[in-house]
Amino acid sequence: MTTGDARTEPPATGAPPTSEAAAAPVPAPTERPPVRENRRQLLSVLFAAAWLTCVLVEPMPDGPEPDDGIWTTIGALGTVVSIVVAIVLLWRGHRLARPAGITAGLFMCLATAMCPLSGHHLVGAFLWVQTAMSLFVLIASARLPRRDRP
Question: For residues 5 and 78, which has the higher predicted lDDT (pLDDT)?
Fold first, then answer.
């Protein structure tokens, strides 16, 4: 090229933007739930999986008293209601998710302990799985942060 030609060289890195680049609209960031919300929802799915695991590993009654009494049925109903409430509140991020989860974990632990104590089942390996799942719900709920907003 000759010295009289006008050359356009690309601007160096870090150069201030030209007026065309400054006028270009900035794309809006994609709307994603915050990481905390994703973790909370994952934990609610894990709570559901823990309860379902407890139900699935329990064998047919093999104890000396295989028929449930009415108090056992009421306890089982309390367990189901408490875990469903805990899952929904945790999914939605409600401030009562922590106490509801602790209640559900306590109900699950109680149901696990009452099974062999009532004569419904003999002690077996399934009890260790149920104990682990129940303690998971209880401890994970207790470690949830306290929230003041609804």
Answer: 78
